[in-house]
Amino acid sequence: MTEISMTVNGKAVKADVPDNTLLVEYIREHLRLTGTHVGCDTSQCGACVVHVDGKAMKSCTMLAASADGADVTTIEGIADGGLHPMQTAFKENHGLQCGFCTPGMIMTATDMVKRYQADGKELTEDAIRHELEGNICRCTGYHNIVKAITDGASKMTNA
Amino acid sequence: MTEGIGARVLRKEDKRFLMGKGRYTDDIVEPNQAYAAFVRSPHAHAEVKGIDASAAEAMDGVVAVLNGEQLTGDGIGNIICGWGVTQKDGSGMNMGAWSALATSKVRYVGDAVAVVIADSIEQARNAAEAVEVDYKILPAVAQSMKALTNDAPEIHDNAPGNVVFDWEIGDLAPTDAALAGAAYITEMDITNNRLAPNPMEPRSAVATYNDAEEHYTLYTTSQNPHVARLVLSAFYQVAPEHKLRVIAPDVGGGFGSKIYIYPEEITCLWASMKTNRSVKWTSDRTEAFLTDAHGRDHVSTAKIGFDKDHKIVGLKVNTKANIGAYMSLFSSAVPTYLYATLLSGQYNIANIYCDVQAVYTNTVPVDAYRGAGRPEACFLVERIMETAAREMGVSPVELRRKNFVTSFPHQTPVIMAYDSGDFATNQDQALKAADYDGFEARRTEAASRGKLRGIGFSNYIEACGIAPSAAVGSLGAGVGLWESAEVRVNPVGTIEVLTGSHSHGQGHETTFTQIVAERFGLPTENIQIVHGDTDKVQFGMGTYGSRSGAVGMSAIFKALDKVEAKVKKIAAHVLEASEDDIVIEGGEVKVAGTDKLMGWHEVGLAAYTGHNLPEGMEPGLKETSFYDPTNFTFPAGCYICEVEVDPETGVTDIVQFVASDDFGTIINPMIVEGQVHGGIAQGIGQAMLENVVYDDDAQQLSASYMDYAMPRADDLPNYSVHHASTECPGNPLGMKGCGEAGAIGSPPAVINAITDAIGNNDLSMPATSAKVWAAIQAASAKQAAE
Predict the structure, then answer these.
(1) In this predicted model, what pLDDT tens digit does every residue of A88-147 receive, in sequence order?
(2) Fold for domain A2-77?
(3) Considering CB atoms only, which of A39, A99, A143 is closest to B677?
(4) Which residues of A touch B505 (CB under 8 A)?
(5) Which is nearest to B532 in space by CA: B251, B122, B204, B190?
């Protein structure tokens, strides 16, 4: 067992977990934050993306113990009440259908927008499609996800 | 009316999904919950000589290890096929037995032989690995053509030669005669590759037995919870229906694969009773590849004949359909009544004959996957039409146009009676949107950059809105395919609509409210859709085959008729007016031509107080309907794909993809376009990326996202989606259905485009870069030899 402590969605949490507990298991099973999803076993689908110290991470690829001391944000903690501009953009552009990949998409999208803005680079459609390499959606064909992220980027800039 | 029929209303269900507050089956935790891990066969075909669970049973946290002998000993029935097909010789299907846990023999990799129930998922999985199964390995076969050879292993004792059934449709002699007299003949071998559906949410089940009540509750990833309850009760004898509640909460995509009642759900329910614990099982992705029903896997030969004016005179098809190791719920219907009945395409064809041999193999059972039989028919028809045009040296656009069905109703020689459509208008709209006239200039420009540009067409038709119960009953269906709805107007005037349809991404909570809003002029926020729970909804046949609009919403429409009638009666009584003079608009119930009115909520309250109702009227305001459709519906359209191929690498870019669809009445264009996008993405996936691969020992080589090429954002284009609709005469809203069109129409458009670009028609799906490159080389070699 390993004792871990971290901040999740602004709240300090502490637990004793088996050494091999994945971060996603800790988030879903121990903290009962079930917005973070598991869609594959090979770190391909991105349904489990959260932010660890401000960076998008696949929480199925990281041990909970490796996140000891970290600041973790999940989909439940991304907005200060109401919806984050990226969440609003997904709704307005019909960027989700079954909703299962959506939390991972939102977490990836906000991270991508922040990185491009920090680097002063333009987030083009090609760049969005390339950046989504690690997030699989089976419902939307990505058309509206790409539109949503473009819109969300502009909403985040103007927010 | 901004929220009624035709409005792009944003989705009511989105907020919870966006906030991470969707409630999927794996999110549910019951008190006293244990976890199931299945012991699965690593062999494709083997006798089970013995199971030693002693080491596993001694491990920490293990509650029980259960096997198939115990399961069948407790009277749990074998898994059924819900559609009986009659063979050419009049006999029934050669169906082998399928137990939820295999007893004497395993027939595919992943076939479960035992289940471990333990306190934690990790303990369950570790113990499952410690269960020792003594297998006697048998030869195995994965391909239908090999399974039909004389030296193939026999998979079920009662299916000689591995033939499940040998079925036919249409008239052979007239078709042969028509083809013999044809001026032009085109023949092709056409393979429709095997796919894994891959909804992003893996299947999951949480089963709870309450010994005090002798009652079971099952949360499960289902597209049709009532069908699940019916089958679990009537055929698997898990529990009688009134002692079994099935809930399909938020479900993360289905695409057909969540129609069926799988061994895992049956086993979890039974294990919950055996252990007196709640039992949860959630598939991992590799388990999903190994156990979720696959789709397609047809190998066909086709022959089409034309007269000297390029009019079709006949079509003859033979198809070998891989059924997998067992017959899944609708596995027999997919390669027969959902397939060969659509072989007439959009065309006038006087003579069609098709025979189908369904074949057992040592693979995952094959069943309905988005489109289910219709993509296979469309691919065959549209590939052979394009090929015939090339061989006859005529325009593929004109050849299709010349053969379109133009008057309706139109009876095809293969059962279906098309009720409406305007194929030429859809084609015109697509050609215009694709700037077809400018294509040759674009091809020339691409050539100047060293790229091969091609264009391909597909004019699909499908049969949706399944289906008239008596008609499908006469064709072998074990159930009726109506739908039910209940509309409850509360005393304060808010409305709950309970529907037997199930939403797993389709946006029913939005579109279904729109028809209520349209009817009574109420805001959609006052209307709630309830679905997915057998304790709440009276009954339902569920969502598949693009039936939720044409059938599910028709049931709601009929229930609304009854509510409207009662509301008018109450208002007429209270307002002392004639019923015929009452109109409902803008949330008010008025006497036409006067200023007399009641608010909608006042009528609701009047119905529930019962203080002043017409003589003899029962209080309350709740109406139900069971709607049985009158015909299939026939969505149709024209898809155009334009590609650029790099001849050096075979890498293919889709530079534009245009869809023009006829879906009949469209309730919410935003949602319909989203359905088309997703369908096209799955069709492009089939055409260029996806393939389930088995090796010679029937081991699945593509059972993870490292191996199976799921389409990703940078594999796909934007889609140019258009509509040109004719109203469906068969249902009150005039709807045809849109859920499967994209997946049906797109694969032939893609392959027709690539083969046009590279000048070699010999190209199978998925057209990967390597295959396209090889086809380019083959074409060059052939040209050099000539």
Answers:
(1) 999 999 999 999 999 999 999 999 999 999 999 999 999 999 999 999 999 999 999 999
(2) Ubiquitin-like (UB roll) (3.10.20)
(3) A143
(4) 97-99, 139
(5) B251
